[in-house]
Amino acid sequence: HVVDCFEAGIRIFDIGSAIDSKHARTTSNLIKWLIEAKKVIRKRFGAKAEAELNFQLLILNDVNDNFNFLERARELHEAGVLDSLAYVHSHDHRFLGKNHIRRIKKEKIAPKDTTLEDLIPILDERKDDILEESLARKDRLTAFAKTLGVPLNIYYSNATGSIENPIKGPEDIEKVVATMMEIRSKLLPESRIIVSDTEAMGNPKIADELMTKLVEATENEDPISEIGIHLHVRNAAEPKEVIELVRAFIKPLIGKVKKVFLEVGFANLGGCISIDVLNKNLPCNIALEALKNMDGVHIKELNDDKLAATDKHVTAWANELKPLAPAA
After folding, report:
1. Residues 227, 193: Cα–Cα separation, whole Å
2. Hey, what long-range contacts does 301-304 have (CB within 8 A, 24 or more apart)?
3. Residues 69, 74, 75: CA angle, nearest 5 degrees
4. Fewer Cβ close by (within 10 Å): the C or N end of the chain?
5. Helices (H), the chain
6. pTM for this prediction
7. Exposed, middle or buried by CB within 10 Å (0-12, 13-18, 19+), for 55?
8. What whole-number distance in Å separates Cα of residue 133 and Cα of residue 226?
């Protein structure tokens, strides 16, 4: 499937993966696969164009009682297959607490069987501790990434708000941008912030204001050279709505940012590993349709039919795997 994408004209392909203690044994298989995949891509496409198959490892926790995530990352790096690390941060303490900040200095925030209804008040009470812990993990991972000589990309989740805490006006956007700028000031070279519409709360107005403010905050002193955009879309959304949203995120960046990494996928794979029943990852075909004919946007010529066929093949493959996947 990766080769099919390169044959369709794609020249930079980022593979993302998360690792946890439950799947530690798959690391050796992952290394073997990445070594072979990189070799195939270089052999088949490297001579014709700049073909890059990059591997990004998402780490949400650097260590727990029984498993050292950093050692797994080091193992991938020593094998020559790790290109970057990634971490998830947000101003939204509830999002962090529900997803990966479940311990603060080895102390559990709440018992594992705590219901969501009972968890929310606990998260609100520990808001400052949760945000502090997330920033501390980000700093530790930054130091670790520096020792490896790889970038650490930061997914800034719920940048467009959440169902529980929506964006209500310009003041909220300014706070989000200020937090992102503080994080960006401490990023390693070649690292990027990935603006994430995690709960599909973005609309064209919010997207335009957010990205405009982000560019304005940096253009005088330290212009952004590259940025990532990670969108979730409602399953019920019409393609034209999604196209309008994508363009609203991109338009303020034209002429201001050299590289924009728009995360897309096939068969609802790619992008985020945590999609709920209402949302899906941004489909590749809709993203390409949005970018076509946008003034100032340069896209290499792609084979649309080949990409459509790849989406069809990946969808069939994903459906075959579903019975093997653990229940959500």
Report:
1. 6
2. 301/9, 302/8, 302/9, 302/10, 303/7, 303/8, 303/9, 304/8
3. 95
4. C
5. 2-7, 27-45, 69-78, 93-99, 116-125, 127-148, 170-184, 204-216, 239-250, 284-291, 304-321
6. 0.91
7. buried
8. 27
Contact 148, 82 (CB under 8 A): yes
Place of tokens 């390169």: 6
Residue with tokens 């990670």: 230
Structure token pair of residue 157:
């989740």
Residue pointed to by tokens 């069809």: 312
Tens of pLDDT, residue by residue over 92-146, are 999 999 988 888 877 889 888 899 899 999 999 999 999 999 999 999 999 999 9
* DSSP 8-state symbol, 271: S
Q: Apex CA 292: angle with CA 286 and CA 293, to 5°?
A: 145
